[in-house]
Write a structure and sequence with these properties.
13 helices; single chain; 439 residues; alpha/beta; 16% strand; 4-stranded mixed beta sheet
Length: 439
Amino acid sequence: MTHDTGSLHARHRAVMPSWLSLYYAQPLELTHGEGRHVWDAEGNRYLDFFGGILTTMTAHALPEVTKAVGEQAGRILHTSTLYLSRPMVELAERIAALSGIPDARVFFTTSGTEANDAALLLATTHRRSNQVLAMRNSYHGRSFSTVAITGNQSWSPTSLSPLQTLYVHGGVRSRGPYADLGDAEYVAACVADLEDLLQQTAGGVAALIAEPVQGVGGFTAPPDGLYAAFREVLAREGILWISDEVQTGWGRTGDHFWGWQAHAENGPPDLLTFAKGIGNGMSLGGVVARAEIMNCLSANSISTFGGSPITMAAGLANLNYLLEHDLQGNARRVGGLLIERLRAVAAGLDVVREIRGRGLMIGIELVRPGTDEPSPEAATLMLEAARERGLLVGKGGHGGAALRIAPPLTLTVAEAEQGADLLADALRQTQRQLADASS
């Protein structure tokens, strides 16, 4: 069978929205995958360091997951939440126990956007307030309510909002007014900023929503303990803490199973949202909350596709595999090696401002050589250079100038070393290209 990717691209542009962006000057059609590799329609093989935006968390074509999906598909594909579902209850029990939230209840959705949307509905209803605190440089989804709490201009198509959102400082450690402070002073300054900000509200703020590591924001993070310090202030006012774990959950950061655990001094969040990796590619998300918060809705509600038998079967199989094979430990070990290798390479390159992250969630911030100015041009060149070498990565961050490295958590040491070599080569080429363009 022949594949005409150019023709498919033309057909895509004819029927899809103009704002539905594609990577690469000549977009890829990925046709199949195995382990940490994918193949395009022309038969080219790539080492996948992005996993469908951190979604293929475990591996492509993981036999345990595909078998569970196939067996469930052979029984029944869909029932809805109007009927009892054994796989939905089983997965909810596992997630509730793992969440760290006492007396937890779980509601399943089909995406991270929908999970955050549900968390906002719960928090604002429970608190009887439409005031929400969000972090600068944040991203929480593409629905009307989640765009309203996204502090990232590149992903905010409208200023219209059902919420009154106030943005707190602290999610970006190495830029902004407090960047030059030590960690303890940085946390103190951000807490003072939060306390000052709360004086600008009408009182009764519903919640703070925060990604422990900002995903689309370029894998930036505050010092450990910032959100615990925030929690102390929030708790005095009864304000809820929502931890957006769509990208940080399930052990990706290596050091912790959930991102919030780096900020655990004052206990777990009131609500936790998840998606992406748990389904290993299936449309699966959800929100975990204390029973008093989850049960605060007075009207009926259902989910037609949330908790679908087939996605629940995938999630259970994937979670079992992840825990049985200690993929959190693998993320810590192999991710630590990868970060070390990349920092050694970056030390001699002016185009790299910072290598940051933890586990298998690594950001490379690129700048115009000789300056501190973010370079989206460099990120675009890097994406293409990596692809030419058989490596797929993502991008994001301030001005779209950061590379996002997030391989499946089964990544081997040999694959990490190969990917680091390919990235090093691509970075050197990008620096040369930028130098040639400016001369």
